[in-house]
Amino acid sequence: MSTAAKPLAGIKVLDISRVLAGPWCGQMLADMGADVIKVERPVSGDDTRHWGPPWLSGSSESAYYLCANRGKRSVTVDMAKPEGQALIKQLVATSDVLLENFKVGGLKKYGLDYESLKTLNPRLIYCSITGFGQESPYAHRAGYDFMIQAMGGIMSLTGKPDHEPGGGPVKIGVAFTDIFTGLYAANAVLAALYQRRDSNVGCHIDMALMDVQVGVLANQALNYLTSGQVPQRLGNAHPNIVPYQAFATADGHMIVAVGNDEQFKRFCQVIDQPTLPLDPRFATNGARVQHRTVLAPLLEAVLLTQKTDGWLAAFEAAGVPSGPINTLDRVFDDPHVKARGLKQTLPHSQAGHVDLVANPIRINGESISAQTPPPSLGEHTQQVLDELGITSEQRHALQQAGII
């Protein structure tokens, strides 16, 4: 899909955030067609540029940085100096959106807080991403994904029960809270852009990692609020559906995701246990949840008798949801992943090319993923300054002073 045809074509985003939640939001907006200008510190840039190995072969770019910065333009500006602040304010004057994830109040000393910038550009949508929000007893604290996963409850739900070998709380294998916060922030920006069409006035979006983590506790939050009982870790099992978990097979593991009683009957036919659905303890999902500790070992004993691929083929033929537990090499070799183009290869100025994970959104059959790679540090500084009308003499002076 060409940039001109994308939903956010013509929208300009100033992304002064770093690490993951803010850049993830910015990448989503870039994929949707916005011109996202990533403002970074001279010399060092975004922290994640140094979070390696691994590094992209033939370049200085870390894999971590590459995951969240597709489609942007990189400009280096030292915002701690007045001249740098002035440049950013020039960019703000013509921007629609600003993304930042500094500590609460951290930008005020630079005159780059919302109250200062809205006088310069009343139409500006200013999105702040912090650990605990602008108003909280914890507002002064830094927020890191791992810490928020712990404080926000998801680690209490993830991992094996304490009494099992290897039991204990476990974090999710990617920065789950950061990514969700980036997605919520992008949604908020879209809503604010829509609202601005009528009001012609911008707003301040206040996103907190802790709020998002609590917000995505989903059914487990309601399990607690509805029953008053604190949910416990169940490993790979589901608190509300049985059987919906991982099982060992003769040569590995697989998952079974039985979502209703009819599927359970078909599942039992495949494993040659047709009488199980007739047992009152297992006839309905509610009964199976109550008697999971009896049912699960019965099922695992049967599933251990055959190999994973055999079971998967039989379950697919019977319409029973199931699947393998793929390592990432198998994920990217999967026919679905290939057919949907989820691995995106783009040209790269240093490495020749870079493989990325495409945006999963498709509109009218086309991926919305931006077609330019994550930028090298300061790659577009001259281009953007030219757009601001900065002369070559002025640019040279800014370089000599270490501002850009």
Automatic annotation (TrEMBL):
<dbReference type="InterPro" id="IPR044855">
    <property type="entry name" value="CoA-Trfase_III_dom3_sf"/>
</dbReference>
<protein>
    <submittedName>
        <fullName>CaiB/BaiF CoA-transferase family protein</fullName>
    </submittedName>
</protein>
<dbReference type="GO" id="GO:0008410">
    <property type="term" value="F:CoA-transferase activity"/>
</dbReference>
<dbReference type="InterPro" id="IPR003673">
    <property type="entry name" value="CoA-Trfase_fam_III"/>
</dbReference>
<dbReference type="InterPro" id="IPR050483">
    <property type="entry name" value="CoA-transferase_III_domain"/>
</dbReference>
<dbReference type="InterPro" id="IPR023606">
    <property type="entry name" value="CoA-Trfase_III_dom_1_sf"/>
</dbReference>
<keyword id="KW-0808">Transferase</keyword>
<dbReference type="Pfam" id="PF02515">
    <property type="entry name" value="CoA_transf_3"/>
</dbReference>
